[in-house]
Amino acid sequence: MRVDFYVLGASAADTVVTSLAARALGAGHRLLIVVGDEARRAEFSRALWQARPEHFLANGDAGAPHAARQPILLSDRPDPRNGAQIMCLADGLWREAQGFERVLYLFGDAHLAEARAQWRRLGERAEIERRYWKQDQGGRWSEGP
């Protein structure tokens, strides 16, 4: 499994999630976005629906009917009811999960210590490939050391 650590800088989490979701769908993947707070999940959902005027990013809540049909599913736990291959941890909190090809772990300054500890823990597991991404002042992502 590959784990991508994204340090949030100039962009808000919902903007980053929207961009990552568009890329995942464009590559033919389904996505699970995990956020513990229900109100925050609703904010992410709105951002996805309104992301691009020419093409929205359809999504639904894991507790709603037809969750399995959603290309992007929002949940409070790492349960890919939609068959997602990619999980995005969008609230800065790490959750263990099995069966994903890739995990996108977004965090800001408030969760920096937890992210560093998780980086070290995952480094001890041979089946995990870790990557670290940081944002420059212009909002572009580059792979960090």
Question: What would your notes on this structure say?
Answer:
- The protein has a single domain (2-143), classed as 3-Layer(aba) Sandwich (Rossmann fold).
- The chain has an eight-stranded mixed β-sheet, with helices on both faces.
- With 145 residues, it is an alpha/beta fold.
- A hairpin with a 5-residue loop joins strand 7 (129-135) and strand 8 (141-143).
- It has helices at residues 13-26, 38-49, 112-123, and strands at residues 2-7, 31-34, 60-61, 72-75, 86-89, 102-107, 129-135, 141-143.
- Helix 1 packs across helix 2.
- The protein is globular, with a radius of gyration of 14 Å.
- The protein contains three helices and eight strands, in the order βαβαββββαββ.
- The mean pLDDT is 93.
- Helices cover 26% and strands 25% of the residues.
Short description:
It is built from three helices and eight strands. It has helices at residues 13-26, 38-49, 112-123, and strands at 2-7, 31-34, 60-61, 72-75, 86-89, 102-107, 129-135, 141-143.
Helix-strand layout with pairing:
Layout (H helix, E strand, L loop, with lengths): L1 E6 L5 H14 L4 E4 L3 H12 L10 E2 L10 E4 L10 E4 L12 E6 L4 H12 L5 E7 L5 E3 L2
Helix pairs in contact: 1-2
CATH architecture: 3-Layer(aba) Sandwich
Major beta sheet summary: 8 strands, mixed
Q: What is the total domain count?
A: 1
Overall pLDDT score = 93
Adjacency order of strands in the biggest sheet? 3-4-2-5-6-1-7-8
- Radius of gyration based on Cα positions: 14 Å
**Might you state the CATH topology name?**
Rossmann fold
Q: Helix content range of the residues, please?
A: 25-40%
CATH superfamily: DNA polymerase III subunit chi
Percent strand equals 15-25%
Query: How many beta-strand elements?
Result: 8
Q: Specify the structural class.
A: alpha/beta
Please tally the helical runs, counting DSSP H or I stretches of 4 or more residues.
Answer: 3
